[in-house]
Design brief:
This protein is of the alpha/beta class and 366 residues long. The protein contains eleven helices and twelve strands. Strands 1-2-3-4-7-8-9-10-11-12 form a ten-stranded mixed β-sheet, with helices on one face. Strands 5-6 form a two-stranded antiparallel ribbon. Helix 1 packs across helix 2. It starts with 26 loop residues before the first helix and ends in a 19-residue tail after the last strand. The structure holds S-adenosyl-L-homocysteine. S-adenosyl-L-homocysteine binds next to strand 8 and strand 10. Keywords: 4Fe-4S, Cytoplasm, Disulfide bond, Iron, Iron-sulfur, Metal-binding, Methyltransferase, rRNA processing, S-adenosyl-L-methionine, Transferase, tRNA processing. It is found in: Cytoplasm. It holds the Pfam family RlmN_N. Specifically methylates position 2 of adenine 2503 in 23S rRNA and position 2 of adenine 37 in tRNAs.
């Protein structure tokens, strides 16, 4: 299902909800759920330790639980993600997994291991309604929002593979989670915030990943950025800007027709002021579209002296798109221009490109 250019979809056509899972619930709600099942409230803590610390869902192996309780408690650990396909590259240190959800919807996540850290890129929606023309996910349209537990399960499953030593380099833990897979996280706000809480809460409540290691990337839903700033969760905000002028951004990131560059940047600065976190500006460099020096100059002027960092992403190829990455000399000139304004800038590596697992390439087809 492809969307007409510029059309935005906020309401998911599919409303199917997966079964309730431990990871959907706060600890207080877990205790209530366990009590409803006829078990003592402290069983919620035990079950949580198995899931968030030992990364297990096999109730048979939970020997600290009486056999009769295991059966009942297993209702809180339904299987939500079924692996359909796994592709690896970089000697196994980059791995993309295609998951089938209970209703047949498909999503992908990507695990990237670096010498000093592990990053997991997760999906927050099946598809996406934001319709950015250079993004494969955007071209497919929105299928449905993912539940909190469906989002968390992507991280738990990666963490489990790492702990088991399945990823070359020895057993390891997840350091970073980036909401840069399929979907617009701030368009599925409540479920995404729940997932972030499960990720950052220390065990047994959650996975205990540092909030600074979690990045929420958005096309720029201004009211939701304001709400996120009020959550008291110091996660990193990434803003997919891609153009410094409204005329071009209206076409590259259609949400710009609702909230202009100046509005979204103001929201970003307010976020930085509130959280003391450096905002990351994402800018995919597209040959002869948004990579002119004058645009780098304009961008530099708009963001200089702010708590900001620019992440340039060489455009990754997507099916049906006529656009390609910038020439190396244009990329260099763009970087230099930004540096002249004193703006910190890095160019993102193209990890996962060979397996269509890089930014904007997730389309979840079998
Ligand atoms: N919807 C969110 C998160 C998902 S995309 C957002 O847009 O921020 C993660 C990043 O990849 C975004 O910055 C997105 O603009 C970028 N991206 C999308 N398609 C791309 C492509 N073909 N090449 C490079 N980056 C791309």
């Amino acid at each position: 299902m492809s969307q007409p250019p510029g059309q935005l979809t906020f309401v998911a056509p599919r409303r199917a909800k997966p079964a309730r899972h431990l990871a959907d619930l706060s600890m207080a709600d877990r205790r209530a759920a366990v009590t409803e099942l006829g078990e003592k409230a402290f069983r919620a803590d035990q079950l949580s330790r198995h899931y968030f610390e030992r990364l297990t869902t096999d109730v048979g192996a939970m020997t600290d639980l009486p056999a009769a309780s295991r059966e009942k408690l297993s209702a809180l650990l339904p299987s939500l993600l079924t692996p359909v396909k796994e592709q690896t590259t970089d000697g196994g240190t980059t791995r993309k997994t295609l998951w089938r959800l209970f209703d047949g919807a498909l999503v992908e996540s990507v695990l990237m291991r670096y010498p000093d850290r592990v990053t997991i890129c997760v999906s927050s929606q099946a598809g996406c309604g934001m319709n950015c023309p250079f993004c494969a996910t955007g071209q497919a349209g929105l299928t449905r929002n993912m539940s909190t537990a469906e989002i968390v399960e992507q991280v738990v499953s990666g963490a489990r593979a790492l702990a088991a030593g399945e990823v070359p380099g020895g057993p390891a833990r997840v350091n970073n989670v980036v909401f840069m897979g399929m979907g617009e996280p701030l368009a599925n706000y409540k479920q995404v915030i729940g997932a972030v809480r499960r990720m950052v809460e220390p065990a047994p409540d959650g996975l205990g990943i540092s909030a600074r290691g979690v990045t929420v990337s958005t096309v720029g839903l201004v009211p939701a950025i304001g709400k996120l700033a009020d959550e008291g969760l110091p996660v990193t905000l990434a803003l997919s800007l891609h153009a410094p002028d409204d005329e071009l951004r209206d076409t590259l990131v259609p949400i710009n027709t609702r909230w202009k560059v100046s509005e979204v940047l103001d929201a970003a600065w307010a976020y930085a002021a509130r959280t003391k976190r450096r905002v990351s500006i994402e800018y995919a460099l597209i040959k002869d579209i948004n990579d002119q020096e004058w645009r780098a100059d304009l961008l530099g002027k708009l963001i200089k002296n702010k708590l900001v960092h620019v992440n340039l992403i060489p455009l990754n190829p997507t099916p049906g798109s006529k656009w390609t990455a910038s020439r190396p000399e244009d990329e260099r000139a763009f970087v230099r221009r930004l540096e002249l304004h004193g703006v910190p800038v890095t160019v993102r590596d193209t990890r996962g490109r060979e397996i269509d697992g890089a930014c904007g390439q997730l389309a979840a087809a079998e």
